[in-house]
C-alpha cells in the first residue's frame, strides 16, 4: 500500500524479477483496482517451501479516477473476501517516496487509513519502507532528514510495536529482504478484516471508514486548505458511504455463502475489486 507513484507496482516487479504489474511513469494513476500476481516459492525456501505467495497491488488513496471512499471499499472487499475464506495476511508493506519534500494531506490520510486497516496487533507483520532514494542523490541530507522524520514522528507507533523499517535503496536486495522478513512467523488478521467479517460491521463503521469520513469532512470545512478544486469540494460534500448499506449487503452474501470453505479451496480472482 501507499500513495500513487510510491513504487508499489515496481516493488512487486523487482521481487518477481519480471514485469508482472504495469508501471505508469505519467501523472495518472495506473493501479485502479486490486491486482495481484501469484508465484510459487522454491522447494528449498527456509520458511515456506513450495508454498504459493500472492503479491497484491493496491490503488492509492490519491487515485486520479477513484474517490477515497471507493478505494477504501475495494481494499476492504478484498481483505474481507480472503479472510472469510480462511486466508489471513502474511504481511503488509507500506511504501512512501523519500522524494516527497513534505507530508501532504493525501500522504497523511493514506498512512492514517493504513494504520486503521492494520490495527496494532498486525504491526509485527508490517514493513514500513521508503523508496525512490535516487531522487535525493543531489541532496542526500534531505533524504536522511525526511527518513528521520518518518521514523521518529509519523511512523513512530507502528515501529515501536514491531513493524520493520526498510530503506529500499538497492531494490532487488532490499525488497527480497523485506519479503523474507514477512514470510517468517504466523499470518495475522488485520483489524478491518475482523471488523467486517467477525463483527459484521459495514465499511463506514470500521475504524478506517470513520477515519476517512472525519478527515474528508475536515478538508471541506478547513479554511486554510486552498488546494481543493471546486470539483473535488463537491465530491467531498456529496459523496461518502451513503450507499454503504446496500453495497455491504450485496457483498456480505458472497462472503457468507461459503463460510465453512477451507482456505485450500479458495481461488483468487482478478475480478475482485
Automatic annotation (TrEMBL):
Residue ranges of domain G in the record: 1-72
Q: Which residues form a coiled coil?
A: none
An example Gene Ontology molecular-function term: GTP binding
Q: Please give the Gene3D superfamilies that the UniProt record associates with this protein.
A: P-loop containing nucleotide triphosphate hydrolases (3.40.50.300)
Q: Which CDD domains does the UniProt record give? A: Ras_like_GTPase
Annotated protein name in UniProt: G domain-containing protein
Q: Which organism is it from?
A: Candolleomyces eurysporus
Amino acid at each position: 500500500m501507499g500513495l500513487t507513484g510510491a513504487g508499489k507496482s515496481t516493488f512487486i516487479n523487482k521481487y518477481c524479477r519480471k514485469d508482472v504489474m504495469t508501471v505508469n511513469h505519467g501523472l495518472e494513476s495506473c493501479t485502479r483496482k486490486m491486482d495481484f500476481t501469484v508465484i510459487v516459492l522454491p522447494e528449498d525456501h527456509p520458511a515456506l517451501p513450495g508454498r504459493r505467495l500472492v503479491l497484491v497491488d493496491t490503488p492509492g488513496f490519491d487515485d486520479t479516477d477513484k474517490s477515497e471512499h471507493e478505494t477504501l471499499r475495494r481494499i476492504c472487499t478484498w481483505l474481507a473476501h480472503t479472510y472469510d475464506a480462511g486466508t489471513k495476511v502474511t504481511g503488509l508493506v507500506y511504501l512512501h517516496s523519500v522524494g516527497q519534500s513534505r507530508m501532504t494531506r493525501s500522504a497523511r490520510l493514506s498512512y492514517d487509513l493504513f494504520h486503521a486497516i492494520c490495527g496494532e496487533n498486525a504491526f509485527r507483520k508490517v514493513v514500513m519502507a521508503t523508496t525512490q532514494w535516487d531522487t535525493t542523490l543531489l541532496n542526500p541530507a534531505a533524504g536522511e532528514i525526511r527518513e528521520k522524520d518518518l521514523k521518529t514522528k509519523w511512523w513512530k507507533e507502528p515501529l515501536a510495536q514491531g513493524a520493520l523499517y526498510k530503506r529500499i535503496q538497492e531494490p532487488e536486495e532490499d525488497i527480497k529482504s523485506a519479503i523474507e522478513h514477512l514470510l517468517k512467523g504466523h499470518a495475522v488478521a488485520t483489524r478491518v478484516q475482523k471488523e467486517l467479517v467477525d463483527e459484521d460491521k459495514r465499511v463506514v463503521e470500521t475504524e478506517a471508514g470513520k477515519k476517512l469520513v472525519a478527515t474528508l469532512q475536515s478538508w471541506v470545512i478547513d479554511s486554510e486548505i486552498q488546494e481543493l478544486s471546486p470539483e473535488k469540494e463537491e465530491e467531498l460534500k456529496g459523496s461518502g458511504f451513503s450507499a454503504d448499506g446496500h453495497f455491504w449487503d450485496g457483498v456480505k452474501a458472497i462472503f457468507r455463502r461459503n463460510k465453512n470453505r477451507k482456505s485450500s479451496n479458495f481461488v483468487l480472482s482478478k475480478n475482485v475489486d
